[in-house]
Amino acid sequence: MQTAAENKRVLEDTLIIATHNEGKVREMQDLLGGKVTTIQSAGELGLDDPEETGTTFHANAALKAVAAAEATGKIALADDSGLAVEALNGDPGIYSARWAEDENGHRDWDYGMQKIWDQIKDQDNMRATFITVLALAWPDGHVEYIEGNVHGTIVWPKRGENGFGYDPIFQPDGEDRTFGEMTQDEKQGMSHRAKALKEFIATWCAS
Predict the structure, then answer these.
(1) Is a pLDDT exceeding 60 seen at residue 156?
(2) pLDDT tens, 90-116?
(3) How many domains does the chain have?
(4) What is the pTM of this model?
């Protein structure tokens, strides 16, 4: 069996994107287009979505990637991403998706954005960082990690209808628009996930 370090065929065969989030799947497929023969998501394969019991982005990304690799016998790529707000001591962080769940347990990103703003609106510090950790898992249990991040500022009211999650309240450094106001191509030129995926391609694509 090839080791992970030797396995440069990863993007020539089938890659499982271990997520049920259609927004993430679209971003990853756009960036990986032409680099891998077949891309399938955990959602379209009907795989279980493992409970994210880890306490770090690395741990949660690995949980998802390993579960998908074991279930399919294929190499799987997962990410764990979140928005770390300085005035909230890094929250919501790994709990970013859970922060957007209303009292009935329904995920509502408008609710999540309002929740963040309500807790920081009286603060002077609006700094925040979007963080992504990618975990690439082989069926034998080996895992590799890549991290990407982008720094910026929380803005209010939210601006833009593009992207997903907290994009409409995050303005990256050096820009006068939020991720929610950018096109997909514009966001992919600078986003945390795009940075991590570009490094992933450079590292694991067959030359």
Answers:
(1) yes
(2) 999 999 989 999 888 888 999 999 999
(3) 1
(4) 0.85
Amino acid at position 136, single letter: L
HSE-up (13 A, CA, CB side) for residue 37 = 7
Structural domain including 49 reads: 10-204
Q: Each residue of 160-204: pLDDT tens digit? A: 999 889 999 999 999 999 999 999 889 888 888 888 988 888 887
Q: Which of 96, 88, 167 is nearest to 127 (CA)?
A: 88
Catalytic-role residue among 13, 48, 79, 80: 80
Element of type H or E holding 96: helix 96-99
- What is the helix, strand, coil percentage profile of the chain, to 5? 40, 25, 40
Structure token digits, residue 105: 């347990």
Strands 38-41 and 75-85: unpaired
Which strand (E) or helix (H) includes residue 116? helix 109-120
* Any domain includes 3: no
Residue 80 among the catalytic residues: yes
CATH of the domain at 59: 3.90.950.10
